[in-house]
Write a structure and sequence with these properties.
This protein has a single domain (about 5-150), classed as START domain (Alpha-D-Glucose-1,6-Bisphosphate, Chain A, domain 4). It is about 25% helix and about 45% strand. The chain has three helices and eight strands, in the order βααβββββββα. It has helices at about 15-25, 25-35, 125-150, and strands spanning about 5-10, 35-40, 60-65, 65-75, 75-80, 85-90, 95-105, 110-120. Strands 1, 2, 3, 4, 5, 6, 7 and 8 form an eight-stranded antiparallel β-sheet that branches. α1 (about 15-25) crosses α2. The protein starts with a strand and ends with a helix.
């Protein structure tokens, strides 16, 4: 069974290109996720440098405060630089993880929408995973809004 959620934030006065650059930089990803961090190889300096060909190009270690807890097989299926990426990956917790991030002009600034869905793999009930991932993305958006509010 697949579970899904969506979250959107409006960043008043934010330049959509600057938001995109943040959204696809590993520093930006990890700043939003903190204290969770995703590793990446040097050959892929940003999310949008990963080929969008549906192939696994690397396995990222996810850690909390430096302690590894999962391995994420990152796969991009679609990418429109400056606008969106569509990731369909898997990891130890999820048979399938889908994340689509869209950055677009909106309300005098930028609008960021994350659409996520997943199919669990472990004995952890999907309702619990859904609550956790919603919370992680709500926190990501709180951090994102704070980062761009401080640039005004």
């Amino acid at each position: 069974m697949s579970r899904s959620f969506e979250i959107t934030s409006t960043l008043a006065d934010a330049n959509p290109r600057e938001v995109w650059d943040h959204a696809v930089s590993w520093a930006g990803v990890n700043a939003e996720l903190a204290p969770i961090a995703m590793s990446h190889p040097a050959e892929f300096p940003s999310v949008d440098s990963v080929p969008a060909d549906g192939e696994v190009h690397f396995v990222s270690t996810l850690s909390v405060l430096g302690v590894p807890f999962d391995r994420h097989r990152l796969t991009l299926h679609a990418l429109e630089p400056g606008r969106y990426f569509h990731e369909v990956s898997s990891n130890l917790l999820m048979r399938r993880w889908t994340h689509r991030r869209v950055v677009e002009p909106g309300a005098g600034g930028a609008r960021v929408t994350d659409q996520c869905s997943f199919e669990g793999r472990t004995g952890v009930p999907e309702a619990v995973l859904l609550a956790v991932y919603r919370r992680v993305f709500a926190r990501r958006h709180t951090r994102l809004r704070a980062m761009f509010a401080s640039r005004r």
